[in-house]
Amino acid sequence: MNEFFPGVPRISYEGPSTKNSFAFRHYQPGEKVEGKTMHEHLRFAAAYWHVMRNPLSDPFGPGTALMPWDDGSNSVANAKQRVRVFFEFLEKTGIDFYCFHDRDVAPEMDSLAESNRALDEVVHVLAAEQERAGKKLLWGTACLFSHPRYAQGAATSPSLPVFAHAAAQVKKAIEVTHRLGGGGYVFWGGREGYSTLWNTDMKRELDHLAAFLHMAVAWKKEIGFTGRFFIEPKPREPSTHQYDSDAAACLNFLREYGLLDEFALNIETNHATLAGHTMRHELTVAANAGKLGSIDANRGDELIGWDTDQFPTNLYVAVDVMLVVLGMGGLQPGGLNFDAKRRRESHTPEDLFHAHIGGMDTFARALKIAAALRADGRIADFVKARYATWDAELGQKVERGRATLADLEKLALSQPAPNLPSGGQEYLENIVNDFL
Amino acid sequence: MNEFFPGVPRISYEGPSTKNSFAFRHYQPGEKVEGKTMHEHLRFAAAYWHVMRNPLSDPFGPGTALMPWDDGSNSVANAKQRVRVFFEFLEKTGIDFYCFHDRDVAPEMDSLAESNRALDEVVHVLAAEQERAGKKLLWGTACLFSHPRYAQGAATSPSLPVFAHAAAQVKKAIEVTHRLGGGGYVFWGGREGYSTLWNTDMKRELDHLAAFLHMAVAWKKEIGFTGRFFIEPKPREPSTHQYDSDAAACLNFLREYGLLDEFALNIETNHATLAGHTMRHELTVAANAGKLGSIDANRGDELIGWDTDQFPTNLYVAVDVMLVVLGMGGLQPGGLNFDAKRRRESHTPEDLFHAHIGGMDTFARALKIAAALRADGRIADFVKARYATWDAELGQKVERGRATLADLEKLALSQPAPNLPSGGQEYLENIVNDFL
Amino acid sequence: MNEFFPGVPRISYEGPSTKNSFAFRHYQPGEKVEGKTMHEHLRFAAAYWHVMRNPLSDPFGPGTALMPWDDGSNSVANAKQRVRVFFEFLEKTGIDFYCFHDRDVAPEMDSLAESNRALDEVVHVLAAEQERAGKKLLWGTACLFSHPRYAQGAATSPSLPVFAHAAAQVKKAIEVTHRLGGGGYVFWGGREGYSTLWNTDMKRELDHLAAFLHMAVAWKKEIGFTGRFFIEPKPREPSTHQYDSDAAACLNFLREYGLLDEFALNIETNHATLAGHTMRHELTVAANAGKLGSIDANRGDELIGWDTDQFPTNLYVAVDVMLVVLGMGGLQPGGLNFDAKRRRESHTPEDLFHAHIGGMDTFARALKIAAALRADGRIADFVKARYATWDAELGQKVERGRATLADLEKLALSQPAPNLPSGGQEYLENIVNDFL
Amino acid sequence: MNEFFPGVPRISYEGPSTKNSFAFRHYQPGEKVEGKTMHEHLRFAAAYWHVMRNPLSDPFGPGTALMPWDDGSNSVANAKQRVRVFFEFLEKTGIDFYCFHDRDVAPEMDSLAESNRALDEVVHVLAAEQERAGKKLLWGTACLFSHPRYAQGAATSPSLPVFAHAAAQVKKAIEVTHRLGGGGYVFWGGREGYSTLWNTDMKRELDHLAAFLHMAVAWKKEIGFTGRFFIEPKPREPSTHQYDSDAAACLNFLREYGLLDEFALNIETNHATLAGHTMRHELTVAANAGKLGSIDANRGDELIGWDTDQFPTNLYVAVDVMLVVLGMGGLQPGGLNFDAKRRRESHTPEDLFHAHIGGMDTFARALKIAAALRADGRIADFVKARYATWDAELGQKVERGRATLADLEKLALSQPAPNLPSGGQEYLENIVNDFL
């Protein structure tokens, strides 16, 4: 257990007053909230790409991350070594789920066949480590955005050969996700969009994307994979526009192409704000459609126009998330995946631990706050009362689709001027702060 | 003709070299482009609210607009006077369509019944002036966002009495639009959204909005109105979030609630950019769904976060618009409505003319440029060639939904590394500039 | 005390567990923090314009605010009545400072002379109420942005007559601020900017603004007013650009025109974020220049592109503010002015109280958190250690301006590769959350 | 001449009607505009980093650029080979200036001493090629943002050893710029800022930055380098905040630290818009201060929150630029440097040519349009007339600092209500379009 992170202990709960930076202040896996343990509620996952493969580069400079366990090579042996490091990380943090892209865990080789073999080799180690350490795969995915072949799209590439390569990669990634018992599989359209409409046939590209997803659904059924398929919205970056720009755009696409029954959404905080929405908005849109599948728990900087993917430490946002999750009865088979990276200046292995501990404590605390707000009931009562005029006869007739404009005009012509109670936003915001 | 704008002549075409600010440089109604006249292509409309009722106030100060014809009262007589002014404006500019909200043309009175009567009186004058001057109503709508009763929404109000008032207003507005031979009717959800999710039941509000629209469709059929219903997307402002935030959000809503067949979209430039999209993107999304109904032609300032509703003078954006319009074979029964206002500093009646002349000339020029780009063909050919690999057998199989991931994997395992030609964005942008 | 807000008691401290919405949970004026009372630290002020004169209109609709004490007239009698209402508000909330614009407290009449007389009359009542209730004027100012004469600027108007009117208004407003014992006087350049550079001589306008401020300084000295002059940065809105766009732009202007000694800055949270900066950044820039004078305490919505002026309830931002304030030893003669308005839906008088209570509790709590972070010392120690290499000889030589590039090159050629400790952002953010 | 770009001819002028993508439509170096040749006005420069070293990577994927002349090694021989390729590019495009960072032209080696030797070797080739081909260095600079040592800043690093390394690099880069006859030297603070204020002593960092620049000035004088020093504003990216965030922030800093006399600004379009300003605003701010030194000619996408660095093809923006440049009498010793990159999809060498041709033609055209607008005079006359009230006695008294508030109050009390002519924005915008 101390092979790769010798200075870091297994993180345990020490309570809010500890000054130990390698301890939890709030996260106690076994503590019960609304009848379930924190562990059951939160379903934390670590992102293989950020923990193991993110060099902390940015557009103005190469990576800074110290990775003493990594020999820098593209070898399968090095890839296997990383798996062992990663599982030590999972064990020390007490995170029980993880997520990966095919090319994070195993190298891309000279041919697809060789890449597939390399992936199989590493998956073998992943399976063994899962078994040994009692960890699970939250979801898998394929990297269809990094290799230059995907510069102009993968499932929306103008090139059929590229589309075919992407299809083959997804086929394989679904298979290994299935083999590892993954709870889900994510489609993130990192390159599915355009740089300019001057060179793009948007309709044809979306038709291709739909065909791609239909084939993926068929393959999932063929091999008996019962995990859930997720689409992950994101508005732009790296492109000028990406087709899956927000929850509504994804749902519209899924409805248009008859895919709605087969997909749910994986909502990320930083993608929500880049699309101009709050995280709570995106979660609510997804949940209202019965399509909130999983969450990428990070945080953005609203003053910055790209994905900063910071660790989620803002309690207000985390409370918003947990209220929606509690409201829908839990995320399973989804979870809270830390799709977050340290700052480029936070380049030590210890920073990885501080970052994840901060995120876990924030969500543990937010879970308790959200439950307390629900138990208090003042906010829910206020909302219910606000719509009370709808609960009587005519309101119900409208809600059931039995009323006409003429019925309503009759009321409007005879009623006194409507009286609106205060929307109470400031009153409600004060209540929220009471629980922080 | 010189009663209200005595210093302004009827605007006529004088060609590009004129220095007369009260003349067209490019707009010749009868000039043919792609076999139709400019007049048929462009279908310009003036917005009653901006031309007649916009005082040019802003959040930091009241109006500045000089309106010597307006006695400042809320009387029906004053309202009728404004109609005559407006038609002089239409005649002098040569704009043959117009759009209005119920409360623009006629005053809100103490009761709904009285307001309806006032509206009827003014509509009588509008009908007479339409007839006299040979002008047409592009679309009508109801103002469901200004009166304090709508502060918390209209069709999504938490209050059923408010919802009923909105329903009655829409019923009446559809009727008068029908009476005036309107080509369409617009639903703009100015208050349909929320200020905070803490007090909002989004699902229930959207259910109510859908019920409202279904009733409107039923009423339209009942009275035999054959104009088109339009939804107008806008992301926020005045609210924190509005449900009809962009084209995709509107389409998703229409699909979810079984309303897609009955509605098209009215796309506005400034709303597009506030939603983080280019105008061309929103137009293309709408057109691809067969749902581009009409256009609010204005321009925003991308560095400013609210609706500046400036007049459309940017040739690049206007060319984008006209390319989509030509590509779909024309906008009819929709048109190009100048939903645009002068700056608060441009407070003279003459500024109204300069503003509209500038918009009309810009679109006339853009129409010719778009037609020239299409005639040139280099861009369209480039795009077609870019997707050429899809035109052979396997591509067609995929497009027809007959392929499997295994089929594509087979190709991917055997093919050489895909070769991507340049996306050519810089090459294409140079061609566009050739035509400007 | 119960004349105008009969249902609202004098707000008192009841501690964190109360459910009374008309009570403080955290604000105890006499509680000591770092050796001073909360009252001395926080210096809360109410904004006359928001409490008394904001109708809660927005660009899409008129006001909704219920003001049963206001007869809706522009009379001096009505203005005097409002003063009494306002002081009941101050007494019930326990806010001891206030701020106003000349045209908030007294009406604009047909001539400047009459407006001045009306102002004098109302100032007489303000003085009496200050005396009676033991309240103080934090700062005064003149409204140079609302009247149509200022549509093209006040101190930067292209029109000398408008500039003269503004000058006269400022002269008078400084005089009455002096008479009321105001601690300061604010210049907010609401219209000092441009809508388009096509019609603007920026250089000449800035020269005029500087002349204007120099004359104001001379007048201040002439009448013996010893309060502080403040400039308030804001990036845009209502204009396309305002000259005082952020703290750096203001400081640059003050330096260029020899005004730096006579002015400090009044920093507002929502203006900071509209300029693309965090509040902490703007405060730090001002404080580093010795020019942080006063604070407009509100909050914006970073996803929205205009001034939402919400009440400050975000603890993270309030802690940032209080850390800067404690770090500079207090704000006196400035204070924390609630330049914030209720949402348009929060139209009852009670909402005014909820809103201010929430803001006051948030800052009381933030004060204690900031003091605790300072007492803990881990963050300050981390920062100090981060720059430790500068504390030795060569670093000191550089800081004193005695080193040369050649000195440093000598070191660089001989030293080993520099070793950077982690920037520790995630570690530090976790510590912050420990104190929330 | 056909060694490295065999398919590309020397680009020559063929006029607006050509369909040859390897020709100029508007740029004729010898064509006279306002008495000087286009070549003298435009002073185009190519950016070594984008033409030769930009792999076209982005945060989601590695480079795509085809560079058949590059062996991919970090060797000095490869670096020299690139110089020859670059000069062929300059010769074929007819661009006569270039700009570089030290680490673009020569590799970073294991020690500073070796890096300096490598740089010397390559500079020798640069000098020879300049001589041979008749090309000039517009400006040089040092790359202080890419290497991990600079992750926490260079001149504002918390680490003195890092600061020393940066100082040594700048010393050397100024020397080689001097040796190559560079017209200027640019300081771009790519890492001079912060990721979080929690770990940052902003005041101390800015003191260090000022000390750094003072030493650079001293060195410049010591070695007799007479080129101009430029600061390049940019608001954020890669950091959360950069100190040189916009023109005003730079000027404020230069004034505060007594550096104003020694520096001018290098303004970039995309940096302007990222700071929330138009390019014309930033240029005007710089020019008004007598500090517009040089221009990085590119274009951003206002809907995207990072530096897209696209080629400048927007005529409106280019006209804005040329109006300011003509208004100040030319840029010399600065120029128009194409700090712009092809899209990641435009990966062929030919795209480099299309991109630069488009930028050159756009600016050639903009130069002629700007000159025509100036010759026409209507806009300048309108602006002059707008301020006419200032040209009489009292206005002149104010402008000379001889008036008092009392003088102006006297006028204000006696004058009639000021009469504002229209600001005429729409009228002026129509005139601009006449010349496009």
Q: How would you summarize this macromolecular structure in one to three sentences?
A:
Four copies of one chain form a homotetramer. By secondary structure, the first copy, chain A, is α/β, with parallel strands linked by helices.
How would you sum up this structure, described in words?
Four copies of one chain form a homotetramer. Chain A is of the alpha/beta class. Chain A folds into two domains: 12-376, Alpha-Beta Barrel (TIM Barrel); 379-434, no CATH class. Helix content of chain A is 46%, strand content 12%. Chain A contains 16 helices and 14 strands. The two termini of chain A are 36 Å apart. At the A-B interface, helix 6, helix 7, helix 8, helix 10 and helix 13 of A face helix 6, helix 7, helix 8, helix 10 and helix 13 of B.
Helix content of chain A: 40-55%
Query: Strands of the largest sheet of chain A, in order across it?
Result: 5-6-7-8-10-12-13-14
CATH topology-level name of the largest domain in chain A: TIM Barrel
Mean pLDDT reading of chain A: 97
| Largest two-chain interface | A-B, 96 and 96 residues
Task: Give the secondary structure arrangement, pairings included.
The structure is a homotetramer of 436-residue chains.
Chain A: E1 12-13, E2 23-24, E3 32-33, E4 36-37, H1 38-42, E5 44-47, H2 48-53, H3 76-93, E6 97-101, H4 102-105, H5 112-133, E7 136-141, H6 160-179, E8 184-188, E9 193-194, H7 202-223, E10 228-232, E11 241-242, H8 247-256, E12 263-268, H9 269-274, H10 279-288, E13 292-296, H11 315-327, E14 336-338, H12 349-376, H13 378-386, H14 393-399, H15 405-414, H16 425-434
Parallel strand pairs in A: 1-2, 5-6, 5-14, 6-7, 7-8, 8-10, 10-12, 12-13, 13-14
Antiparallel strand pairs in A: 3-4, 9-11
Helix pairs in contact in A: 3-5, 5-6, 6-7, 10-11, 11-12
